[in-house]
Amino acid sequence: MNESQKVIGFDRKIRLAWLDATADWAARGYSVEEIRSKLDLLLDGEIEGKEALKKTKTVLLRIWVLVPEDLRPLRDEGLSLLPQQPEPGRLALHWGMSLTAYPLLWDTSTVVGRLLDLQEKVSASQVRRRLAESYGERSTLLRAVRRITSSFVDWGVLRGTDQEGVFAAGRVYPVEDERLAAWLIEASLLAGSSASGVLPALAKNPALFPFEVGHLNGRSLEENARLEFYRQGLDEDVIVLRTTGHTTGA
Fold first, then answer.
1. What are phi and psi of 116, to 5 degrees?
2. Given 89, 193, 234, 247, which residue has the most CB atoms within 10 angstroms?
3. Which of 48, 47, 49, 51 is nearest to 14 (CA)?
4. DSSP at 121
5. In 3D, which of 211, 196, 33 has the Cα closest to residue 116?
């Protein structure tokens, strides 16, 4: 995909409470139309303008409801994990589904994670410059990055500073539930369009910067039927998606 074809997609500020509500309704088995109606009520007074409301609903529905067929097993397990998760675990589920739904969110998270590895603060303009190499110099890109970073602040993974458009790292959440950790690794492979990866590198993927993935091994990964684990060489653990061919888009 060249720069002129790469889609922005995620260009709304999305609050964590909205994601929680959407996922809860999906987990309870509400229909798409029922969820649309509930979102209208939830967002009433929060979003100004019909077009902005429509776009916000589109983002929320694409993450948890109108999911491509190849992502439905991931989504369905995520919904099954949701009720038993404390707040950090719920955030990890929203994070994983958001990254798989929107390539721009994956790319932005990767850039932010890499920058935070090198420095204490990151600016929206820094992120936009790096993303422009893939998405082109578009006015819509900076606006989207600002809304994504604003969402990240609402989610608690970034903190605002006294400089406008400049952010510091938020909390890092440990992911100790082995099933959730394996799910998040699977989500990162799908979001990154990767068929496989070395386990330590996957656990420390910069796109997962808000999370500290606990120790995983073959036994803990065996419960996820969509992942295959094997040892390469003497001490290299490799994770492979059993079914590849995932396609992302917006």
1. -70, -20
2. 89
3. 47
4. E
5. 211
Which residues, in sequence order, are CB contacts of 63 under 8 Å at separation 6+?
A: 19, 22, 94, 97, 98, 101, 102
Query: Is 186 a domain residue?
Result: yes
- Note whether residue 202 is domain-resident: yes
Identify the burial level of 74 via C-beta atoms within 10 angstroms of its C-beta, where 0-12 means exposed, 13-18 middle and 19 or more buried: buried
Domain count, the chain: 1
The pTM of this model reads: 0.91
* Half-sphere exposure in the Cβ direction for 2 (13 Å, CA): 1
Task: Give the integer Cα–Cα distance in Å for 167 and 158.
Answer: 6
Residue pointed to by tokens 């890092």 = 172
Full domain range(s) for residue 226: 173-241
Give the pLDDT of residue 219.
67
Q: Average pLDDT for residues 183-190, to the nearest whole number?
A: 94
